[in-house]
Amino acid sequence: MGCPIEGEKIQIHSYKHNGLIHRVWDETTVLKGTQNLVIGGNDKTIVTESDGRTWITREPAICYFHSQHWFNIIGMIREDGVYYYCNISSPFIYDEEALKYIDYDLDIKVFPDMTFMLLDEDEYEKHRREMNYPDVIDKILKSNVNTLISWIRQRKGPFDPDFIDIWYERYLMYHK
């Protein structure tokens, strides 16, 4: 597994547990790329859904992926503050084609005041049965929900008040 190069534009591919593509983000600028961590930025990027429908993101976003955590975090920069969308997912892999991960349905939405909501529990249970998520995966995912909630409460990692500002400034350097 390689690692993306700072300044490089990459795609992000989200899959489901059954191996089918879920969603593709067309272009994200790598702001930091190592074997363990990728931080990227995008704005008004084309997103393609598994059924072929496309849409364009509305605001700048900073994306955080880690090879040791079963989640990824997207900080969306809006006029009234930063909103976070956290996907419970497999750790990422990177190959020459894209940064890739498996989306496991559960999401946490975090508001600018750092209140949050766990989303899509019904969808998770449905897919867990349909795709036969192993018990070990179920335990890992639920444990990572708790880890993520702890990070939110502690303002750790991407939830640190300065994190998005610092990386968004770096993103703007590539897009002047």
Kindly list the characteristics that best describe this protein.
EC 3.6.1.15; nucleoside diphosphate phosphatase activity; FomD barrel-like fold; magnesium; metal-binding; 11 strands; 3 helices; single chain
Structure notes:
Mg(2+) 2 binds at residues 105, 107, 120, 123. Mg(2+) 1 binds at residues 87, 103, 107. InterPro entries: DUF402, FomD-like_sf, Ntdp-like, SA1684. This protein has 176 residues and is an alpha+beta fold. The chain has a single domain (9-174), classed as FomD-like (FomD barrel-like fold, Beta Barrel). The protein contains three helices and eleven strands, in the order βββββββββββααα. It has helices spanning 121-130, 135-154, 163-174, and strands at residues 9-15, 21-33, 37-42, 46-49, 54-56, 61-66, 71-78, 81-89, 93-94, 99-110, 116-119. Strands 1-2-3-6-7-8-10 form a seven-stranded mixed beta barrel. A hairpin with a 4-residue loop joins strand 4 (46-49) and strand 5. 32% of the residues are buried. The mean pLDDT is 97.
Highest-level CATH class: Mainly Beta
Shape category: globular
What do we call the CATH topology? FomD barrel-like fold
The topology string of helices and strands comes to: EEEEEEEEEEEHHH
Question: What is the gyration radius calculated from CA atoms?
Answer: 15 Å
Distance between the termini: 31 Å
The tally of beta strands, per DSSP, is 11
